[in-house]
Request: fold
Amino acid sequence: MKYLLRLALFAAILVASCSGDQRPSSLTITENGLPILYTGGPILTMSADSVEYVEAIVISNTKIVFSGLLKDAHQSFPYTDKVDLEGKTLMPGFIEPHVHPSLAATVLPNEIIAPYDWQLPGVLKKGVTTPEGFMERLEESIENHNDKSKLLLVWGYHPLWHGDLSKDILNKVAGDTPVGIIHRSFHEFYVSQKAIDLLGLKKEEFASHPQIDWDAGHFYESGWMSILPKVTGVLFDPVKLTKGMKMMKELITTNGITTIAEPGFPSTSFPFEYGLYKGGITDVPYDLKVIPNGTRLYQSKGGNEGALAFIDSLSIYNTSHIEFLPKQVKLFADGAMYSQLMQMKDGYEDGHHGQWMTEPDLLKKQIEFYWSHGFKIHIHANGDLGIQNMIDIVKPLYEA
Reply:
């Protein structure tokens, strides 16, 4: 189960002050390799149920090896490089392990009509929990969308709250405004006819895809992923994306997050997404850890061997704040939980069916391939059938 914002304690360090958002360089290992002792300010450990402060901590080889009284630190570690906090507060940072910066940059500057409130920098997007409320907000957004040559992008739709959606419904409410609606899961996309025209999508190219309902203007799971590389330039406005990256930075820094992760890169185009990250994740007080998207690279690099060769070359794209994690890959099993397209052993009471993002036979080959090359494999799997399928594939590999 994944969440857009899911926080966990991490052994990174955040130094908070009234004025600064920059991470001091003293948090790295010193040239002489000595442990580093921090003291001279409040040190909040966050290791107990109640507020707990210590006088000093010691870091060695990037790990916290001591926390407690300063005199005990001197006794246990007589030779250290000392850092005076000068009254600043030192506390554990947070890690956000599943943020997908490109998705965040897409969602944040565009219209949000979701079932619950979203507090963004400087604005609150109130939640909407009825079909009538959703349509009312959508009509307001369409009315305020002045440039008909650009796509009105809306995120947050969910049929459990907002009712049915289709191309015909959007055509009636949108008129000559091109409208694209991204499902709350980000695994589904609904478009009006004007949006189809603007995006340059052709029926003969996509109508036969098993996860595209062309007449309904509905693209889901691999059907949605299949059109993304073709519509990136129109779908993702560069000005808005730049704004979205700045909004994401503000949310990350104000919540004390020091590390974020992109599990499954790229979703669309490597040059496009890498350019977005390289331009937006620089001179920031947090790091981005990237896990390559083996499913997407299988398609774009002509199979597993081509994908592996590309993954092995990714270290050349590392920067001071962006790191492609070596020997790691992300694969995709079944559909999204939020949209109830995950694969369930007992199916669904209303008769609809879950979806495979990767057919089980192909996924088995992909898992076996990366396992044989010593990779840590991350798998997007949600339903009990999807998860059972993963267990059935991995168990004999583990036992061999």
Q: What stands out?
A: The first strand starts at residue 8 and ends at 16. Residues 238-254 form the longest helix (17 residues). Residues 1-29 have pLDDT under 50 and may be disordered.
